[in-house]
Amino acid sequence: MIRNFSDHAANERTFLAWVRTAIAVMGFGFVVERFGLFLQTMAATAGGHLLIHPTPRFSGEAGLALIVLGLVMVAVATLRLLKTAKDIDSPEEHAGPGSRFDLTLAVLVFLLGGSLFAYLGLNLLGAS
Description:
mainly alpha
C-alpha cells in the first residue's frame, strides 16, 4: 500500500486540473489566432464592408501569448506535482505551496482577456 495515498491522489487530481486548464487556455489561444485569420478572410471577401476591421497581428500575438501561457502552466503544474509529492513523503513540516505564481498566472490570463475584449469592443464601437 502507498503511504499517504489520499494525499498523493489529491496531488495528482490537482495536477490534472492544472493540465486541463492549460489545455483549455492553449485551445483558446489557437481559436483566437484563427479567428483573426477568419476576420481577415471575411473582410477580403466582403470588400471591406465588415463591422470589425481586423488587425491580424494582434490576434496572432494574443493567440501565441495564450499558447505560451498554457505551456508555462503545464511546466508549473509539473514542478508543483513533484515538489508536493516530495513534501508529502518528507517527515518534516512544510509550509503550503506559494500562491504568488498562481496569482501571476491569473493576472496574465485576466490581462489577455481584457485586451481581447478591448480590441473587439473598440473595433465594434469604431465601426458604428
